[in-house]
Amino acid sequence: MTQMPITDYDRQVKNCSCSYCGNNCDDITYLLKDDKIVGVRHACRLGASKIINDEDQRLLNPMIRNKEGILKETTWENALDKIAQLLTNSVRPVLYGWGETSVEAIKEGIKIAQITGSVIDNQSTICHGATIQAFQNVGHPVMTLGAVKNRADVIIYVGTNPMDDHPRHLSRYTTFPEGFFRPNGREDRTIITIDPKYTNTAKVSDKWISYDIGEDYAFFNTLRMILAGHEITDEEIAGVNIEILYELVEIMKNAEYGALFFGLGLTQSTTKQGNVDVLIQLIEDLNKYSKWSMLPMRGFFNVNGFNMALTTETGYPYGVDYSRGYPRYMVGETTTIDLLNRREPDFFMAVAADPGVQFPGYTIKHLVDIPVVQVDTHWGPYTELADIVLPSTRVGVETKGTAYRMDSIPLYMKKVIEKPENCHSDQWILSQIYNRIEKLKQENGDN
């Protein structure tokens, strides 16, 4: 990461929000010189790099792919009209992404889905979808990161490595900060990592417990059995000595306030949703002895915001299908990967996401055969597939908006600098598309 000397700035903007991960750190200070960001304070290495070096491969003008297969710059009017026409004429459109944009933009996307009968889906469909299903089935012993900072004396990470993926998670919320009831910070806490791999998070933990890959359900169900007072005669479960499991249960039972965080290492393992189901039940069992809560480690800074907004509007968290004129939700039927694998969509628009990175190869192949639109800030693999590209702005840097932290706390993200001249916010772009679709339907006599 390259930046100008920390003293070489003429203005600073405090209490900004980072748009990197689900931590949504809102204590960031931007250092500006000539109205450009030249330095960052308090951000982690990943967040700072994104904020400062985010001009690389920047999309600056709308483009349409010509007959020769080359993306050529065009006017906003031409690009927006073309997208509105394609969406109006499509039978099975899909609107995907939304993890790195504002709630305000997401609400515009929901309006487009309603008026066009689209499927609207986000990254949850390929990451924490299993978690959300488990929450719907079993419940969610929820907590806030502030409660963890001030109260938690035992913190467990399962199938996640925040030291690399959410670098400030431990330093700001869980392990190292001084809390109201934990005035000594790290000394007042016990940190446990449960993961088959010895991660950087495991290195800074008091205890690392490694179990056999794919044996998540057996591992956590055994903890429930021990907690319930059943005698386990096996010498080891899931590759872990039974004495270690008994010791772990005692630590958890005797916690004053326990906080458990889990990631894709759990949700993408063999039993998927079942792993989260049994983990929730373990937390519920522990609450007979102590106070325990849990949270999934969400990736993109507003991937949770999409789930919150869509649930508020429709009652469903992701993979919502408006093709019948009302919202429907059925995992495996109305979710993006399944739709693409069945070759159903005849139009695909990705907003603040890159399916070229996120989707399996077989799934991506269908995008070559249908009209594809990209609404994003940067050039990426998906740009190579896109027929129309619309350059957007960075929330929390060039555009204000609302995002939901991983613990479902809404945060305001302020505008700090001016956007590139020919770029527009996702909210503006989507509202323009909606207005054009509405006009086309009125002209066609559609209700």
TrEMBL record:
<feature type="domain" description="Molybdopterin oxidoreductase">
    <location>
        <begin position="58"/>
        <end position="435"/>
    </location>
</feature>
<dbReference type="Pfam" id="PF00384">
    <property type="entry name" value="Molybdopterin"/>
</dbReference>
<dbReference type="GO" id="GO:0016020">
    <property type="term" value="C:membrane"/>
</dbReference>
<dbReference type="GO" id="GO:0018493">
    <property type="term" value="F:formylmethanofuran dehydrogenase activity"/>
</dbReference>
<dbReference type="GO" id="GO:0015948">
    <property type="term" value="P:methanogenesis"/>
</dbReference>
<protein>
    <submittedName>
        <fullName>FwdB</fullName>
        <ecNumber>1.2.99.5</ecNumber>
    </submittedName>
</protein>
<dbReference type="InterPro" id="IPR016457">
    <property type="entry name" value="Formylmethanofuran_DH_bsu"/>
</dbReference>
<dbReference type="InterPro" id="IPR050123">
    <property type="entry name" value="Prok_molybdopt-oxidoreductase"/>
</dbReference>
<dbReference type="GO" id="GO:0003954">
    <property type="term" value="F:NADH dehydrogenase activity"/>
</dbReference>
<dbReference type="InterPro" id="IPR006656">
    <property type="entry name" value="Mopterin_OxRdtase"/>
</dbReference>
<keyword id="KW-0560">Oxidoreductase</keyword>
<dbReference type="GO" id="GO:0022904">
    <property type="term" value="P:respiratory electron transport chain"/>
</dbReference>
